[in-house]
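Before the break, one more example. Copy the sequence into your notebook; we will annotate it together after we see the structure.
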Amino acid sequence: MVKLTKIYTRSGDAGETGLGDGKRVAKHDPRVEAYGTVDEANAVLGMVVHTARSDGSPVAEVLQSIQHDLFDLGADLCTPIKDEEKEGAALRILPARVEMLENLIDEYNAPLETLRSFVLPGGSRLAAELHLARTVTRRAERAVTMLIAAEPSTTSPVTMQYLNRLSDFLFVLARVANDNGNSDVLWVPGKNR
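Here is what the structure looks like once it is written out:
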């Protein structure tokens, strides 16, 4: 288990950080960018969880569970896959968690009306925060795709799949937070021409 007694170490003062396998890399390394952006998405989700709880929304518990997944996903990205790595040797996000998100998407999307336009981020405060979490998650996904392109053999594609489904789920939850889509703000193409 993690035990943090000292918060600063000065080991990163020269612009490097340690990966989960002990290797030192630049703080702008694609791997660090990927798990750092996942951490940012998790922080935004923390804000969403707070708002959801304040609103009495039942999605708060689901989202907090997802925050645990994002820490697992960050650990996965932080530790490059080794050749012939044994199962359980490193913490990895599992395909079952991607399937869990797909099931949640189907469950929460089922009662919503079919969209006939794109949705503007906004509506209720909770919906706006969910859209913010969605866009940061999409940025994390883009960072992971760049990492996979640079280091395909040492990066799990499940990390990208999870982030892809998570951003879809956050979109669906934003619609749910907008009175099941009834308060969605729809894009009107060319409205300001």
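The longest strand covers residues 16-18. The mean pLDDT is 93. Try to locate both features in your own notes.
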